[in-house]
Specification:
Layout (H helix, E strand, L loop, with lengths): L5 H4 L8 E4 L8 E6 L5 E8 L5 E8 L11 H16 L5 H39 L3 H11 L9 H10 L1 H4 L9 H13 L4 H19 L29 H10 L7 H13 L3 H5 L6 E2 L4 E4 L10 E4 L2 H14 L19 H8 L28 H14 L4 H7 L7 H6 L5 H18 L14
Antiparallel strand pairs: 1-2, 2-3, 3-4, 5-6, 6-7
GO molecular function, one term: DNA binding
Keywords: Coiled coil, DNA integration, DNA recombination, DNA-binding
Organism: Azotobacter chroococcum
Length: 458
Amino acid sequence: MAKITDRQMNAKPGSSDKWLSEVAIWGHGSLVARITPSGERLFYFRYSNSRGERVTYPIGTYSRDGQEGTMTLAEAGQRAKELAGLHKTGIRDIREHLEAEEAARIAARDAELARLAAEKAAAEAEQARQAARKTVAEWFEHWAKIDLVNRKDGGAEVRRMFEKDVLPFLGNMAVADVKKGHITEVTDALLARGVNRMPKLILSLMRQMFRFAVDRDLIEHDPTASIRKAKIGGKDVERDRVLSDEEIRVLATKAPEAGLLVTTEAAIWIALSTCCRIGELLGARWEHVDLEQGTWLIPAENSKNGKPHNVTLSDFSIRQFKRVREITGTSPWCYPNTDNSGPVCPKTVTKQLGDRQRQPEQGTMSRRSAKAQALLLPGGKWTPHDLRRTGATLMTALSVLPEVAERCLNHTEENKVKRTYQRHSYVKEMAEAWHQLGNRLNILTCPDTSNVVILKHA
């Protein structure tokens, strides 16, 4: 039979294989079809190989309408012609030839995939290299957006320090180019200004930023890793500055003449009489201050240890808060910023007090207070945090139990056993301690101090 027809291909299967064949194409092989008992309809190309053996090579599955993965009679005939053409050219071992072609195609495909993968890897490496060329200033912005934003002040204080002391040195450098020497150049400049603690703090912050870069594969090594903080500016010395009774009396006479804002002067006495941190005071809201009941709540988000702190206000403290209230008016903040959108910078009071404690040989600072020595005290320079320490010391000098004074400072009990089992709140004792401290400050700051008894501090 010259040609296989669709009618033949769709014939009912028999009990054994039914074979259909066409006339050989150019005498170099023919199309063959097979209908199995199970109903499969398969196409083959039958030819003689170089050894004279008859080979039946499968080329596809029949489908009248050419469904996916199948072929019609016409398609099978065309494929048979292609294979007969190969046989005619002298390729007798068609199966081996096609298998070799398939292997070559797979090898070529794999080679192409390997080439594409190598190109992708090279592109990624180049991209990483270019990313590593990010400047320190650019990386600082990324660090600020991802990490610093989670800090209480949104990273404002770290930004201020970097813009002043780090970025002028490193800002335009590529992160990958920063070496140990560049880091010490920053800290050495700070040491040359005569500060000791700030270089350590700046080093710690730079270390955080560069480790952030290491964690994200921007760089392989942290350039600050081999720098020991102890070698930067010498050993830290714990401050123990406490104002004496005499210094408090002198401060009471100097403060009104120091050219301070009324609110800043009041902040000195509030910090001293409540033992609060200056940042807790400057971030306070009037909704937490009850001058009628004499209480001030420092909310958890404002306290250093993340725990709310209830302060009992003495008459002395209340008078100072009232002075502040007269200035700030209807603002929700006790110490609002200039546009009343939030509290002032926590460094505001510290800066004002520091500007008025310059040694005579240092002179005045440009566009700063002309009263550069107005708040100098016999015991040396003092800070708002020293007022907190002084308040607690005065309490113990007034026979307040040290544990009560610690509670007034809102310190967390370090002894785990006591912290777990000692649940007494000391509310009454703390209130009495604040009142005693306020009474003592009333006496020390009174203009007529001829009868004041100077207490020996514990």
